[in-house]
Amino acid sequence: xxxxxxxxxxxxxxxxxMSYFLWQAIENQRKNRLKHALMAFQSHTxxxxxxxxxxxxxxxxxxxxxxxxxxxxxxFAKLMEDILMFSKKQIISLEEKLRFLDLYLKLQHLRYSxxxxxxxxxxxxKENRTIQVDDIINPEVFFLPPLLIHPFIENAIEHGLKQKTxxxxxxVAFKYQDNxxxxxxxxxxxxxxxxxxxxxxxxxxxxxxxxxxxxxxxGIIKKLYKMNITTSVLEFKPGDKDxxxxxxxxxxxxxxxxxxxxxxxxxxxx
Length: 270
Prior knowledge:
50% of the residues lie in helices and 14% in strands. The chain is an alpha+beta fold. The protein has a 5-stranded mixed sheet, with helices on one face. Strands 1-3 form a two-stranded antiparallel sheet.
């Protein structure tokens, strides 16, 4: 009798272990599928943006503006290099992200200089820089998923500011509040409702590819790394003729986090 009980216990333990290893194998397969999907989305660059950049470079060449064409082409090559490099990473520092966004805005401004002003990150005019970062934030110690923010900036330009008859404004602000890194993208473009109406009338959403991919990637990151990312999109100034759009992305930091000194890379929970 004791032998039967002992045998039963052994068999039960074997079944539990087999179930655990089977569950672990299935979970690893699920994570690998999500990682491959994430890398695929990260490596995707909006062809609409690439086409417009190349058309702008071509316009400079046709107008014999060789210096601007060369500068623009070098900046574009650097941006593509960053996209390729970031697409292979799970996270990058906020410092890297700021440099990337600054270059991205520079290229967009060359195309749409009549639609919004752009003041670079290294400008001495700190108060009016297009990208604003709270003094409390040390960009070297914040780590975030790459290539998530610029599609929202592109959307603000393509669907908001590009449609205005007058020059508007665009701002990107990073703040730290309630243990969250908050990115706010504001513009005074035509607004959400007018933009949706225009897209319905034109029966096109080709420049929304980046936004769709960004939202899918956020969903995958949440499942894969259990990272808390929230997004909200509202009218910036409701009631105005051009109410614009305010996009807010919130990244919850690890529980023990200091915005000035951060924490070691290996302790970041994602």
